[in-house]
Fold these 3 entries.
Entry 1:
Amino acid sequence: MSGSSLIAASSANAARRGSAVSRRILIGLGWLVFTFFLLLPLVVVIGQGLSNGLGGFFAAILEPDALSALKLTVFAVLISVPLNVVFGVAAAWCVSKYSFRGKAILVTLIDLPFSVSPVIAGLIYVLMFGARGVFGPWLQDHDIQIVFALPGIVLATIFVTVPFVARELIPLMQEQGTQEEEAARLLGANGWQMFWHVTVPNIKWGLIYGVVLCTARAMGEFGAVSVVSGHIRGVTNTLPLHVEILYNEYNHVAAFAVASLLLILALFILLLKQWSEARISRLRKNAAEE
Amino acid sequence: MSRRISPVIPGFGLTLGYTLVYLSLIVLIPLAVMFIHASQLSAIQFWNVVTAPRVLAALKLSFGTAFCAAIINGIIGTLLAWVLVRYTFPGRKIIDAMIDLPFALPTAVAGIALTALYTPTGFIGQFAADMGIKIAYTPFGITLALTFVTMPFVVRTVQPVLADIPREVEEAAACLGAKPLQVFRHILVPALLPAWLTGFALAFARGVGEYGSVIFIAGNMPMKTEILPLLIMVKLDQYDYTGATAIGVMMLLVSFVLLLLINLLQRRIETPN
Amino acid sequence: MSIRRYALAALASAVFAGSAVAKDFTLLNVSYDPTRELYQDYNAEFINFWKKSHPGDTVKINQSHGGSGKQGRSVIDGSPADVVTLALAGDIDEIAKLGKTIPENWQTKLPDASTPYTSTIVFLVRKGNPKGIHDWADLIKDGVSVITPNPKTSGGARWNFLAAYGYGLKAGNGDEAKAKEYIGKLFKHVPVLDTGARGSTITFVNNGQGDVLLAWENEAFLALKEDGGADKFDIVVPSLSILAEPPVAVVEKNAEKHGTTEIATEYLKHLYSKEGQEIAAKNFYRPRDKEVAAKYEKQFPKLNLLTIDKDFGGWKSAQPKFFDDGGVFDQIYIPQ
């Protein structure tokens, strides 16, 4: 009896010792991969952006065209993200709380914008709303400009970020199941009460995570927006497009400075995300302890 | 459509309806317009467009490099997820926060930065050039750009699942004499596979369509380093809208089938019987 | 009835009076890649010029730049451009044909076939010309690497291509097969095809790729002017090149809708004035005006220039022959 437990203990020790070595190797490898694939390109961007000192950096990001690009980007984000949040919650609700035929297809359709080339994402709106598009003549008669103007940019941004919130919520809500909601209903809550008091608190942090990713991606979208923007300086240029313009004007430092601004904004919201993630795991742990 | 779980919970009609309407307006109808546009071509014309030698070469290149990038991400993504979940070490939080940055960085900026690094005169490219390896302007460079852009997918799908596997299971297996490889094969792989597949599929699908980051580093040589989205752009710049939409339709169909297959495969794995 | 007529007259007079009253104009000039610097200067000049005769007006000119074909397409698809200033007539022809916002005879509306300035294609090489590149024949020597953009997506690249083809034709005594052979060999020396002229310049200048860049003359001069460029690069003028003619046109339907027909027309006409021509010359475009051209004679080397209309039968025949699917350019890459 004692012999066998001794053997087990020693083999567990050996495993632990072995794992200490492999642990170091794996962490080292992780850092290597991270540095090589992720950090280096980012360092290049920020390094170039700061190569004329902080003065040059701020001059580039406070220039009127850069500011108007920033405004446009923020505007597009403020419209597209809330719309995608409502969609994400609705989609996650019907996918995770019910089972129905065609669910696999629906989930695939939700993922579809991930796999549509940004070039196509822009093109389809041109085919719909462009001067020779399906609704083109009607729009022209009514003097409504959609592509090569703000609505087109917003549409393209919505398209590329459709899946983010739903993707984040579906697994979370599937895991949580339906018991709490059912209990609320049996206790007499109506649909909305159940949603606000039971579901929302449960998915709050996952929702924030989705919003953050959605925002980050919406800020950075280049290809699709490029197709529908028309590249009018100071009017229909988003920040990513402004970076391209500056780069093409031999203004590399300014280009990378504006790109760094995007990176810093992204990093900021990603830190928000991490904070929300930490909250999720703490909540989970608490729930497990209870 | 029959619903089976919990008829007590309301909102099925509302949420499904809203989901379908929204998806239709934003995604499906616009995509359908592309199909309609492409249908101006007869089946034979369509076939001729999508099987032209340049298109086939681009098809091979785009799907090939996206596949390689997804495989690379499958490996290093799992590694990163593992390290982030299982160990605490200095800098862990920083890595964790920065994994998603490729989503936020405009793809064109990523392309410019990577090109600056990997051209034969660039920071890394010069060492590679000394060894006789060319990175930028080759399929290798394209793979690299795609690996960067699609990096978050595998990490972020594997990470939460890995966090949910209780360590005790592995330790118990180890105590019972299982070798690390056996633990990996019999415990980790089955648990992680569905999530891994999702991450892989998303990275792959996104890689096939990626444009902004690739055109700077690709070289864009016909038959050699010309990717499918660039061919669509080329067709558009020649005012050949139907040709462009034909290639778009083909790409979309292939991606959709791939995603669907992987979604089905995943369900197979999740509900074995 | 009479009251109504009176009201109508009053309204009409108000409208006429209104034309003398200060107005706000916003013009959109949709242009191609390398003209950014030119139109930045020219817009300031034009606003001053317009204000002399219309002191109360406020004029804002928005700019859009990109590959010529892409820009043409955005106008076809409804970009609200008042004027287009593109790299080649073929792209404006497409707007006239597909977009129908420009009349088919647009090229007759302004002098010199609506081309207020011209340029040509020259070589930009590394300082001291280490590979000894003096003419087109040197481009296909062993170990020479050539940077040019993709003729499928870049207007400038099409001029490059035709200049090279013209040389091949001349070297082969007019034998098309020889010209095709030359152009085939030339593109074997091209390691990267960027999508636009500016992209190629950046590949050559900033990323240090290639021994020689085939570039717009103005683009090559600009690369010399950029910080330290003159210490790093030399311009080589080949024995033969092509007269690149970037044309301009008012997008009449859009201008009518925006009420900018008059100012848009004036915007393009003023390009032909002494002031406009000076600005073009200062930005390294060859002026049409004889006096201004004489003044800047030293700046622009003399060389034999082919023209698109005489030597290639105009864009209407050159585009399908060389650049459409299956054309000469495709034949280089696709085994027959």
Note: Residues 108 and 230 of chain B are 14 Å apart (CA to CA).
Entry 2:
Amino acid sequence: MKWINRIIMAILTVFVVASLTFFLVRLMPGSPVQVMYLELIQKGIPANQAMNQVNIILNVIPNEPLFQQYIHWLGQIIHGDMGQSIQQTGVPVIRLIFNALPWTLITVAIGLLISFFIGVLLGVLSAFVRERWTSSLIDNIGSVAHAIPQFVTAVALLYIFSVLVHWFPSSGAYSIEVFPGFNGPFIMSFLYHMALPVFTYVLTGFGAWTLQMKASTVSVLKEDFMMAARLRGLKQNTIMGYLGSNSILPLFTGLMLSLGAMFGGSVFIEGTYAFPGIGNLLATAINTRDYPVMQGCFILTTATIIFANLIADFAYTKLDPRITD
Amino acid sequence: MENVLDVQNLSIEFPTETGVVRAVKNVSFQIKKGESLGIVGESGSGKSTVAFGLFNSVPDPGRISSGSVRFLDGRNFLKVNTEERRRFYWEHISMVFQASQNTLNPLLRIRRQVDDIAEAHQFNKKKLRQKAQSLFEMMYLDTDRVMNAYPHELSGGMKQRVSIGLALLLDPEIVVLDEPTTALDVISQGSVLKILNGIRKELNISLLFITHDISVISEVVDSVMVMYAGQVIERGPVNQVMSSPTHPYTLGLIRSIPPLVGDVKNTKGISGSAVQLDLLPKGCPFYSRCDMRMTKCSEIPPPWVTLDNNVSVACHLAKNEGGDKNDRTQEHFKTI
């Protein structure tokens, strides 16, 4: 019963955020009508003719009050229709999102899992050798990697591996010579193209996990039950199990939230590598004031984060006996 | 009777930034089968460090600098390799920890933790669970509930009794109890002590009872050892030490027990605070706080003197003024 309430609350939250973004995106200076109108004027078309043409192309009612636009949008969204792109006239937003989503999901998921794995390993290692120079080396590498912004790391990797040594391609998700589908050459080409984006996700992501895991492991190592486990003569791998399960638990929420956030991709990383994912779709939509696409992307990221949070809360009650629902 | 535990000249030191601090100095004692010994002293006197020394598991960065620890098998336990040590733990010596509430893994049910002990020491899981149940029953615990509970579902006193039960699980010859009742309220304290006394007699197990509260142990132990600044300063049968303490420090400890009835004005604390271990005088470590100090006390370490009543004491006063002090304690006890 409690979980049903939570789910209803989550849906309401998504709806409220979606409504707010509806107004927020329209508060931005500039509009798609203006973008297209100015383009036509520049081509030498007279002003009122240009306006008519814009209205026909975009299929909008000129100067419709914002509130009526909102009512209109509500009618659409209740039917699960996110509208159509303005710039790529007539293409449904859903289709744009579903075209972009797989690229983002696969790269971010791989990057996230690798960085989580590396972070946890380094964190445990650093906790074990604490008060030695190796530990502060690991901690500093973690902090620096975490502190460098994604676009700096992305540009640096692009410059080194793509411009200087030509090991990896600089853009795209696959080579134009392969045919997308479940076939060997395509998968190889995809893996080859996603190497740099994934590497960037890993480099910018593992630091935070390392620091969190170290802090968590150090505090569990000091727990009385660890000393007790040793003096009870428990086997080394049992003791490591005690340590691992207790220290990885606090990282679980973070991991679930990152998994939720992965549907949004990274605007910076996908932008730098011209990777056709959600981040890139959103960046293009913002630049051209493509309201429906922007909103579609925002609803997707909001919904996934809110539901990942919900799943994390639920899973916690199964993982940690001290937490009940 | 043979000694279950024989500790000789155990010294434990901690390297610090300002130099090496000797937390335990030349501590020797023996425990016979079924006997129980109490170690008494204030915080920082090295009691718990001795306990971890017995396990050869002194917390970092401490190290055992000299001495030997021998159990029934006669080997020096400090020289035994890690795997043998692991097997030795809990089968021969077990411990009830200072903060027993936190010594259970919070993520596992009690029965799983019993299973883990069984697996580590190659016991039959089913039999060991039955053993645990009978031990818990001895301690007035609702066994089915406890076995299926997570640690957080039990009260502090229950967890304490679970810890004691776990300590007895593999029939060790000796159980070390490090402040087993300190974190408990008076009522749980009383019941835990009663349980311990009962079990000790029933199972003929040796106990090493570590506490700062001298009033707690008098009914549970046969003999007592008083520690100050990492050294043993007095030891003997508990009733002798309690009724006629010889060392001024022991006297102070006993005088600081508040009486059960009547005025507390006769209760007296020991003046000053525990000495810093790196600033000890050449002579007696208690010199700076002693009411009865003499000039030679600061220079000459007091020799060990064994008195008629089987009490040994390291104090310059021990020979000539023992009787006098005796009377003073008698007075104190009258007022209690």
Note: Chain A has two domains: 2-78, 96-319.
Entry 3:
Amino acid sequence: MSEQYDPNIVAFLCNWCSYAGADLAGTSRTHYPANINIIRVMCSGRVNPLFIINALQQGADGVLVSGCHPGDCHYMEGNFYARRRFGLMKELLEYVGVDPKRFNMSWVSASEGSKWKDVVEDVVEKAKEAGPFEQFRRNKINW
Amino acid sequence: MNNKPKIGVYVCHCGINIAKTVDVEAVSEFASRLPNVKVARNYSYMCSDPGQLLIREDIKNEGLNRVVVASCSPRMHEMTFRKTLAETGLNPYYLEMANIREHCSWVHEDREEATEKAKKLVFSAVAKARLLEPLYENEVEVEPATLVIGGGIAGIQAALDIADAGFKVYLVEKTPSVGGRMSQLDKTFPTLDCSACILTPKMVDVASHPNIELLAYSEVEEISGYVGNFEVKVRKKARYVDVNKCTGCGVCSEECRLAGRIPSEFNAGMGNRAAIYLPFPQAVPAKYTIDPERCLMLTRGKCGKGPKCEAACAAGAIDFNQKDEIVECKVGAIIVATGFDVFDAAKKPEYGYNDYDNVITALELERLVSASGPTGGNIVLGKGEDAFVPQEVAFISCVGSRDKSVGNEYCSRVCCMYTAKLAHLVKEKLPEANVRVYYMDVRAFGKGFEEFYDRVRREGVRYIRGNPSEIFKRGDKLVIKAEDTLRSTPIEDEVDLVVLAVGLEPRRDARQIIDLLRLSQSADRFYLEAHPKLAPVNTATDGVFLAGCSQGPKDIPDTVAQAKGAASSALVLLSSGKVKIGAQISFVNEATCRGCGYCVEICPYGAIELVTVNRMGNMVQVARVNEALCKGCGACSAGCLSGSIQQKSFMDRQILPQIAVLGGVK
């Protein structure tokens, strides 16, 4: 892997906990790598597995889904669905040859700005270890 | 109307908050070249009046029909800009925000990197904005009633304010009487008002107010519904005493076989009670309660030749067959005022709270100095022949506060002042006693606090700066080992009584309310407010408000102020009578739905049902969303196999372009 490689991470954050936690990281001026790009959804349970595949196809080297701590979901059980769904998803991705380091889940509450920083650093680090992701890219065909 | 997207992008400098790390000129220039973008501007403060005017003018003059604001978090100003759009007649949901402050300029240092990221975030917002659809909010009626959970001073004050405004209040208190922690106090700092004298009139008001239904000795068991329309189930625990017959005479308690043998919760274990008891003389309601965990009749089914309380009760109020009752009510708003627990001093074993009888907590001393306490206000320790009056008294402050080793990093805010107050009371009752306070810092920040602290020192209370490391016994005396950090000298101090100024902690049963109302906790484990500065009484759940120490340690004036704030927030809801509920809910494309019912199973709110419809002559089952019940989590659409059920504003076809942009494959 070259030293130059800068991974691109797409993150799906639930509005109530993780997005607010990331906001708090900002308010507290916590510095973390700029590799992470956040998409806001209302609940981690909203994240369709399709989104993960799509992100990997569209150029992401790593994906993160982050929600409320299990039991604290604003919508009661949305993050339980996410946890189960993406537990399976991770295995499936591994099965089709995607390095499990590329797909991460975390639970970050609205008061855990510093944890968010740790999560981002960890996810970026893992994506760096896994290297650039080309497997799912749609190769342009030159006729 | 031609609905081809014409997008306006507005990049905010936020003073230098964004502009310092993000090249806002470059971002707006980049945005102006994006598909469907008609205008792109940057301005110093988009949320200011001129900033909003800029958007409104462009909507009018340029015919914009979508707006992207790249500024702070949507959690901050989404509502502000939605209103801006609405003022021009544009549907407020044609707004998308790019968070280039909290998620970009504040967290990244490199200007180039931050600018590139800001561009990406703006592009992603534009990609979504193109596909936004107009949404319409539903209005629902608000049930003109409030549930207040917790009958301490916070709950009492909130209940009274709402009831005085003419709305119904259900006040639920877990213990047999309202009054809470404040009723346990003797005097209140810094004015030395008698706590009971200022509290009991309010307790009586709560019980007699025509608009308040007091549910004492009750617990909230279930809460469903949403802002304006909560349905609540309250378990009214059996008192085994008919409250309509009980006159509060107290003969039963005197006769009880266990009289004087059960530690009294109200007296913090310093005094005893019977199995049938009134927690304290001024209890409201003044009705007796049988402790089901102690009463011989209720635990063993047998009490001597027959329960003496039953025989003694002239009113015939004792009823061992009483059952718990479930009370159901509908309310529009909920106020959580569940208070705090004091720190468990046993978690600091070096202070010997478990080992020595004359190491006590401040709450225990509070009961000793109280005229209604077990000693009638005399500071006497021990019993019978061992009873003695302490001469050398030491207070230790910050026990369980500002202490990472026990997981409480925060300051409990009241200990410095209640220590000063108790030191004053000890001096008042025992003028010959030598009183000293071991402290880290003295925080006398409130109105009249510093003056009071000064007064106490002038009265001869010695303040020694240093955190004791150990307390051990030597003969009859306790020895405090500490270092006077101002003089850098070690101290061994022989005393008769050590008072631990224990801090405030979240209630040990705080989890119950979290599970009922989906509240969050802040890092200190108290309930989390919606915004620490601008929405300190709100929670992330609409219609649920916080009051008092459940949100964080507070003194009585702050608690009352916050309770009044929570009451007024609830009243805003109740008096307007209507509330807008989320427009970003799910909907079903009935033409493609195959009626598998997965979404029905997934929905946490039971908001989806299968209905039979006529699809081109065929009767088929399709899912249908109950808009009043849907809270817009979107779980259904992640589970749908055909993508037929979608969450408005978070549809697959709106999120996928965002992913594509952020992924960055050209």
Note: The beta strands of chain A are 9-14, 36-41, 62-67, 103-107.
